[in-house]
Write a structure and sequence with these properties.
The complex is a heterodimer of chains A (265) and B (161).
Chain A: E1 5-7, H1 12-21, E2 25-28, H2 34-39, E3 47-50, E4 60-62, E5 66-70, H3 75-80, H4 82-87, H5 89-96, H6 101-106, H7 109-115, H8 122-129, E6 132-135, E7 139-141, H9 142-145, E8 146-148, E9 151-152, E10 160-166, E11 170-177, E12 184-193, E13 196-202, E14 209-210, H10 212-220, H11 245-264
Parallel strand pairs in A: 1-3, 2-3
Antiparallel strand pairs in A: 4-5, 5-10, 6-7, 6-10, 8-9, 11-12, 12-13, 13-14
Chain B: E1 3-8, E2 11-16, H1 23-30, E3 49-52, E4 55-58, E5 71-73, H2 86-93, H3 103-116, H4 122-128, H5 140-155
Parallel strand pairs in B: 1-5
Antiparallel strand pairs in B: 1-2, 3-4, 3-5
Helix pairs in contact in B: 2-5
Chain lengths: 265, 161
């Protein structure tokens, strides 16, 4: 790791001020992507601004017809939360399939979506539920938040504070994990919401995306059979040592069927 | 350089560290607690698992400065008055190790499992060990050891480690 200066602000205002004053600073949440990146010297921030002391960023509460999860809440707290299991169990399941128990004890929801790794699980849950990302400046709809590979709509000094998930009528998440990293080779989140059916796919492309053809098919027939009538175009999908684009296209349909089955209970 | 203070195995410790110093480096190189191992150094193998504020973590993926004010428990903190912790004893008795390199991490990881779930099934133990790699044993005796320790700890509950 290259050397950096470390800050542990007690408030969001102080954290945002540090980001403005030090343009090469990076936020540190759970650190389970950032610290490995720094160890490999793939990044050289001048400063790390640790969000760990800001209590308001942490916690899970019922709000309106849904759940609000603080940005610095670790995956393991979402996995084991009775509230999450009662209101949106698919999110508890998604969180419980990230990495391993020690990674889930540190890695956070906000860190995951700010990083927007193409194979991360949370982007599928956030887009699949039609969630709203709350920041120090505004609210951003999930559909507008994830803008490209490891890119988001966040401004340089903008900090995610929480994510609000409207409660779907039913939802399910299924993923084909990479056996070593547990990142999604393909993950599909299916939800029937008050605003219609949403299907979000992670791992398959450069950035989480909605599968509108399947959303339409599920609107007519919310069963695994709906998947049989759609085509998944491999042209835009990722190909790497773990899976070809054609295989990922195939996995999208298989994972979608499993996710629908889970949503049906 | 920043000063860090933490309680490690019940003892107040402090030291000056560079911000980039990892928790595992602080434990091993500043405090001489070499029971916590560095295996992969990439957050995968689990040899470096310790507890921070009651949760198991990979100490190769935490900065020492992030743990300022924290309560840290390492493998050295498990035995009491010269008597091994039931998990340590069970790993010994069930032959849950060969080279022993992964063992401190295995035990610290298993400890959190048993604190959360005193009666795990074999499947739950295997799933929990997702983040701990062993290159010798094939895991079978590790799982046996954890199940035996669970049984013993249920019969004679331990004081909080």
């Amino acid at each position: 790791m290259y050397a950096f200066d470390y800050h542990r602000p007690q408030s969001l205002d102080e954290a945002a001020r540090l980001l403005r004053e030090r343009p090469e600073a990076k936020l540190l949440a759970g650190g389970h992507t950032l610290l490995p990146t720094l160890k490999q010297r793939l990044a050289q921030p001048s400063d790390l601004v640790d969000l760990g002391a800001i209590a308001e960023l942490r916690g899970i509460r019922e709000e309106g017809n849904g759940l609000t999860i603080g940005a610095a809440t670790p995956h393991g707290e979402v996995e084991t939360s009775e509230l999450v299991r009662r209101l949106i169990p698919a999110l508890a399941e998604l969180a419980g399939e990230i990495g391993d128990p020690q990674v889930r004890n540190r890695g956070t929801l906000g860190g995951s979506i700010a990083n927007n790794d193409p194979a991360a699980d949370w982007p599928a849950g956030v887009v699949g539920c039609g969630a709203v990302v709350r920041t120090t400046r505004r609210e951003i709809a999930a559909d507008d938040f994830f803008t490209g590979m490891c890119e988001t709509a966040l401004e340089p000094d903008e900090i995610i504070t929480a994510v609000h998930f409207p409660r779907p009528k039913r939802a399910g998440y299924a993923k084909f994990p990479n056996p070593a990293s547990r990142y999604a080779v393909v993950g599909v989140f299916v939800a029937e919401t008050d605003d219609g059916v949403r299907v979000a796919v992670t791992g398959a492309g450069p950035c989480v995306f909605r599968l509108t053809a399947l959303e339409q098919a599920l609107t007519a027939d919310f069963t695994p059979n709906a998947v049989d009538g759609i085509e998944v175009d491999a042209a835009e999908l990722n190909a790497d040592i773990h899976a070809s684009a054609d295989y990922r296209a195939h996995l999208v349909k298989v994972m979608a069927k499993r996710a629908i089955q889970k949503a049906l209970g | 350089m920043p000063q860090v203070r933490m309680r490690v195995n019940g003892r107040e410790v402090s030291g000056e560290v560079e911000p980039r110093t990892l928790l595992v480096e602080f434990l091993r190189e500043h405090l001489g607690l070499t029971g916590t191992h560095v295996g992969c150094d990439t957050s995968q193998c689990g040899c470096c698992v310790v507890h921070v504020d009651g949760r198991s973590v990979k100490s190769c993926t935490l900065l020492a400065v992030q743990c300022d004010g924290a309560e840290v428990l390492t493998i050295e903190g498990l035995a009491r008055n010269g008597e091994l912790h039931p998990l340590q004893r069970a790993f010994h008795e069930c032959h849950g190790l060969q080279c022993g390199f992964c063992t401190p991490g295995m035990i610290m990881s298993a400890l959190e499992l048993l604190q959360r779930n005193p009666s795990p099934s074999e499947g739950e133990v295997r799933a929990w060990l997702e983040g701990n790699l062993c290159r010798c044993t094939g895991y079978h005796n590790i799982v046996r050891a954890i199940l035996r320790a669970a049984e013993e700890m249920r019969e004679a509950p331990q004081p909080a480690a």
